[in-house]
Amino acid sequence: MKLPNYEEERLRTDKEVEYVYLNDEEYSNFLKDKKYYLKTYGCQMNVHDSEELAAHLENMGATRTEVLEDSDIAILNTCAVRENAHDKVFGYLGRCKHKKEQDKDFMICICGCMAQEESVVDEIKTKHPYVDIVFGTHNIHELPNLIVEHKNKQDIEVYSKEGDVYENVPYKRDSKISAWVNIMYGCDKFCTYCIVPYTRGKQRSRKSKDIMHEVEDLISKGYKEITLLGQNVNAYGKDMDCEVSFAELLEMVAKSGIERLRFVTSHPWDFTDEMIDVIAKYDNIMPYIHLPLQAGSSRILKLMGRKYTKEEYLELFNKIKERIPGCAITTDIIVGFPNESDEDFKETLDVVNTCKYDSAFTFIYSPRVGTPAAKMKDSISKEVKEARLQELNKLVNKYSNEKNQTYLNKVVKVLVTEKSQKGEGKVCGYTEDMKLVNVEAPIDTIGKIVDVLITDAKSFSLDGKLV
User: Fold this and answer.
1) Counting Cβ atoms within 10 Å, is residue 39 exposed (0-12), middle (13-18) or buried (19+)?
2) Cα distance from N-terminal residue to C-terminal residue, the chain
3) pLDDT in tens, 371-412
4) Kind and range of the H or E run holding 75
5) Under a CB-based contact definition with an 8 Å cutoff, are residues 183 and 236 in contact?
6) Distances (CA, A) of 79 to 86, 114, 190, 200, 303
7) d(C-alpha 77, C-alpha 115), whole Å
8) Coil, helix or strand at residue 105
9) Which end of the chain is more exposed for a tag (fewer CB within 10 A), N or C?
10) What is the largest CA-CA distance in the chain?
């Protein structure tokens, strides 16, 4: 299975494909009295994919367990973005192998982005023959067939090229309060360090009418918050003729009446003035934007294929701050990209000092086989990269803590989503600008938007009590 060249001539069908679950007795009872264990690695897209995987398994009669040793089938939904995710999966396979040695009927499945990598599939074949089923990001909907047809040999069913966009896909949602709504699949940006266009395929947008149908269904079921989801969410519709733009879709969903609306992850290149206007116009579009920087040096940004300069990014950042008062902005930053100089890294620190992000996800560059950056000569030592990451994190945490301190003694609105792990009598949830708050409040506040007085501020969370 070879990595496809999606940069060749685009092919897209406008065929609408509705997923139909095979609900006959063979399927609906095939996993009756069985337990499944589902472990998810990676991004929000993988989390949402796991909601689909759970629905398939439960439609087949299985029930979920959070204990691997109690399960009859284990599914590892994997991420390919960084090396450590790869290592964690293969490390965890050791536990799965031990379980299979004790129970020969125990089934092990690997799916997700790692399954779309040829080198990983080869590694599974040669070093992990006890794995039962391997399937990719393009054929999640075929899991029931793969399980039913499994014949005690290693089944590898990975589509090298994406297919149609399926509608009416079942989901076993993790929450009854907040929901992901996928508006597109794949990505066409081809940043030189990123494996996603190869593992997730070219961009395929869902039709707006299908998205709105899902949104309206969620509202009717009492959901308070919806997050529009895409690998490059604000490029929505660019692959389709006669479709709406992302800004238009955002406005359509805002008008639906959902109490809170968010979106992730946006690309600075596709962030339009129209988007900013729509966000500023509607109170139910939350004042929180994740705006990946990746690097503060225009030279490195060009090598990364990011399509914007440092100056263009800062212009956009300032425009958002000016036109959306109180908007929180978070970011992603990579250090140690091939041949990043001390001056390049200093420019990244300069941008952080300018933007003073609410928080940031920071990473050491991880080469991924099949991407252009993996072929670049790298002269930076591991020690230098780790020192840069430490310096960056110290700066990011400083500003994150300073931002959180500004919430002390203020009253904020919090959507309470679950019990807090910070002690009895506490629940937790998020402010409008995506600050995690642990609240002294009764359990019946879960699912409600409540006023909370902030009593303590830490670097990564806030504490408060009901007003």
Assistant:
1) middle
2) 58
3) 999 999 998 999 999 999 999 999 999 999 999 999 999 999
4) strand 73-78
5) yes
6) 7, 6, 17, 11, 24
7) 9
8) coil
9) C
10) 65
The residue to which tokens 């402010």 are assigned: 431
Sorted by sequence, the CB contacts under 8 Å of residue 445 that are 6+ apart come out as 416, 427, 439, 466
Amino acid symbol at 435: K
Q: How many helices (H) and strands (E) does the chain have?
A: 13, 21
Q: Are 287 and 322 in contact (CB under 8 A)?
A: no
Between CA 332 and CA 340 the distance in angstroms is 17
Q: For strands 184-185 and 204-205, give the pairing.
A: antiparallel
Give residue 418's Cα distance to chain centre: 20
Token couple for 101:
């040695």
27-81 pLDDT tens trace: 788 999 999 999 999 888 899 999 999 999 999 999 999 999 999 999 999 998 8
The residue with tokens 């391997």 is 134
What is the C-alpha separation between 156 and 176, in angstroms, rounded?
A: 34
